Amino acid sequence: MSKIAILPGDGIGPEITAQAVRVLDALGESFEMEQAEVGGAGYAAHGHPLPESTLKLAKQADAVLFGAVGDYQYDTLERALRPEQAILGLRKELGLFANLRPAILYPELAGASTLKPEVVSGLDILIIRELTGDIYFGKPRGVRECPDGPFKGQREGFDTMRYAEGEIRRIAHVAFQAARKRDKRVTSVDKANVLETFQFWRDIVTDVHKEYQDVALEHMYVDNAAMQLVRAPKKFDVIVTGNMFGDILSDAAAMLTGSIGMLPSASLDANNKGLYEPSHGSAPDIAGKGIANPLATILSAAMMLRFSLGKLEQADRIETAVKTVLKQGLRTADIFEDGTQRVSTEQMGDAVVRALR
Ligand code: NAI
Ligand code: MG
User: Fold this and answer.
1) CATH of 124-256 given 3.40.1010.20, 3.40.50.300, 3.40.718.10, 3.40.50.2000
2) Do 1-95+265-357 and 124-256 agree at the fold level?
3) Which of 93, 110, 122, 123 is nearest to 229 (CA)?
4) Tens digit of each residue's pLDDT (9 = 90 or more) over 289-299
5) Is 334 in the pocket of ligand 1 (CB under 6 A)?
6) Partners of 274 in the beta sheet?
7) Does 70 sit in the ligand 1 pocket, CB within 6 Å?
8) Which ligand is located closest to the Cα atom of residue 20?
9) Atom 5 of ligand 1, nearest CA residue
10) Ligand 1 pocket member 286 (CB < 6 A)
11) Strand partners of residue 268
């Protein structure tokens, strides 16, 4: 029996996670679900955003369903105790290196995108962001005395961009394998014209591609990719890129689809164990009001079934149920438009559960 660690977190985390758990329950499968505190809730209950007991549960489980963390009330804590440390700690401890973020525009929400309907209608792309390397973790880093050039002797900030060959290879494999199940096209985004690290990235991705001749590979500079994402986003299928470029491009892609409340994500390790969470944060501005959109978390649960638990049919059932409630015109406040019916977080959960049956 699959074991799922449920980590609701703080802010809107508990409200949206509760709806995803109801949906999982309604599938009629027997999962073992165990809940634990994380983020602000971990700090409140155990004095740490990632308590030992929570980490242990996450390690034992086949998959982790994570809500969100980062409510305002924890803003004044020192950095090591801030809720966001929980997600960084989990990524590191669980060896999660591939962040998958699908950006799908449901036809019913075409009016919610900031771009013209003809540019985004039918959008279905997958951004794969590497999570362990790049300038975010490279050492040395810090502030020092500038050793040369016109600013010699002044203070300077510096970071180090690095990517190990094995780190690039494993994310490239994830991208090509994902593309095989989709439209068989990968765009690798880099800055090979300026950065040594990303010329190396390009060379390694090209080498891994030899094993996937059924998939088309295109290389694109990140500045052009940013432009193409808003000009003609439907031209992409799978985008694979490094940690920093992926951080930025995936947020831009998220906005094409109208609401961050609709976007799920997966963070995978080498064995398809994963952590699944909505792309958004803890939305402190609406926490406790019962108006948050639970669909990103419900769709994250579907990704969990597909990637970590091998329940493809059940994943499809959830995604179909989400499409059904959108067709029925049900909308939480973030996607509400004239002519649709405004529902609460819980009513949206109810509707998905009904649509499953
Ligand atoms: P956010 O995603 O929490 O909120 C941005 C805006 O989107 C807000 O107006 C919010 O009300 C709205 N929103 C977000 N999710 C929604 C949903 N499901 N339904 C309806 N509206 C929704 O991002 P923000 O405000 O930048 O960050 C708030 C806190 O969350 C910060 O402490 C941040 O560090 C944390 N955060 C945590 C993440 C995580 O748990 N993995 C990811 C991103 C941010
Ligand atoms: Mg980001």
Assistant:
1) 3.40.718.10
2) yes
3) 123
4) 999 999 999 99
5) yes
6) 63, 268
7) yes
8) 1
9) 283
10) yes
11) 98, 274
DSSP for 288-333, please give it: TTT----HHHHHHHHHHHHHTS--HHHHHHHHHHHHHHHHTTEE-G
Confidence of residue 67 (pLDDT cuts 50, 70, 90): very high
* Residue ID of nearest Cα to ligand 1 atom 26: 281
Ligand 1 neighbourhood includes 283 CB (under 6 angstroms) = yes
Asked whether 295 and 263 are in contact (CB, 8 A), the reply is: no
pLDDT by residue (tens digit) across 162-200? 999 999 999 999 999 999 999 999 999 999 999 999 999
Q: Which structure tokens are listed for 313?
A: 């049919």
Tens of pLDDT, residue by residue over 208-221, are 999 999 999 999 99
Annotated binding site for NAD(+): 281-293
Q: Say yes or no to pLDDT of 126 above 90.
A: yes
Domain boundaries, the chain: 1-95+265-357, 124-256
Statement: residue 113 has pLDDT above 90: no
Best mutation site among 260, 277, 344 for ligand 1 pocket (most ligand atoms within 8 Å of CB): 260
Q: Are the C-beta atoms of residues 124 and 236 closer than 8 Å to each other?
A: no
* CATH architecture, range 1-95+265-357: 3-Layer(aba) Sandwich (3.40)
CA 28 vs CA 24, 122, 315, 357: distances in Å: 8, 31, 13, 10
CA-nearest residue, atom 29 of ligand 1: 70
Q: Give me the active site residues, please.
A: 136, 191, 223, 247, 251
Please indicate whether residue 280, judged by its CB atom, sits closer than 6 Å to ligand 1.
yes
pTM (2 d.p.): 0.92
Tokens 């030899």 locate to 210
Residue nearest to atom 32 of ligand 1 (CA): 70
Q: What is the pLDDT of residue 255?
A: 84
Binding site for Mg(2+), by residue number, is 223, 247, 251
Nearest in space to 211 (alpha carbons), one of 180, 181, 182: 180
In three-state secondary structure terms, 109 is helix
Ligand nearest to the CA of 41: 1
